[in-house]
Amino acid sequence: MTDANASALQVLEDKIAQYRIRLADVADDVVDDVAKIIDEEQHRTMAAGQDAYGKPWQSKKDGKSFRFALPYDVTTGAIGRVIITRIRTRHTVLHHLGVAKGYKGGGREQGAPIPARQVIPVGGKIPPRWSQRIKERVLRAFQEATS
Predict the structure, then answer these.
(1) Most CB atoms closer than 10 Å: which of 4, 11, 37, 102?
(2) Are the CB atoms for 34 and 139 separated by under 8 Å?
(3) Cα distances (angstroms) measured from residue 65 to each of 25, 54, 68, 92, 100
(4) E strand or H helix that includes residue 89
(5) What is the pLDDT of residue 93?
(6) Which segments in the chain show pLDDT lower than 70?
(7) Dihedral-angle region of residue 81 (phi above 0 means left; psi in -120 to 50 means alpha; beta otherwise)
(8) Using CA atoms, how far apart are residues 72 and 115, in angstroms rounded to an integer?
(9) Pairing of the two strands 74-79 and 82-87
(10) pLDDT tens per residue, range 14-47
């Protein structure tokens, strides 16, 4: 009986080792795809005049929509397993932070801050649509690795 158990445990340990080897590189294999998903989603929300969570950017004082950022103002890439999204243009950064000053028209006094219009995700929470797409890609990679 002991030999049968030892044999079964050895088979199980071998199977676990096989899965560890197959799954070891999944994170490295999908990081570029995840960065691409984030970049696509970032550009989609910006083109729609929304923050990363789908909330429309605050309109101008006259009620007209405000376009201050273009998709190429933000870029996403990966270094190793780290994904970095960065705002490339100063104007967009200032609006994102709500610290652009010096507006000279529209009833605002000179030097009054311009309202924050978020561009990239803030507060460490990944937008739900982004999270869903990332999860689908990672699960597909795990399925491919284990089949």
Answers:
(1) 37
(2) no
(3) 45, 15, 10, 16, 18
(4) none
(5) 85
(6) 1-2, 22-24, 100-115
(7) alpha
(8) 22
(9) antiparallel
(10) 777 777 776 667 788 889 999 999 999 999 999 9
pLDDT of 111: 54
- 81-84: long-range contacts (C-beta < 8 A, 24 or more apart)? 81/27, 81/28, 81/31, 83/31, 83/34, 83/35, 83/38
CB–CB of 114/100 below 8 Å?
Answer: yes
Torsion of CA 125, 91, 84, 34, to 10 degrees: 70
Phi/psi at 75 (nearest 5 deg)?
A: -135, 150
Tokens for 144, please give them: 């491919």
C-alpha separations of 116 from 51, 60, 87, 98, 113 in Å: 10, 12, 14, 4, 9
57 φψ region: left (φ > 0), alpha (ψ -120 to 50), beta (else): beta
Whats the size of the chain, residue-wise? 147
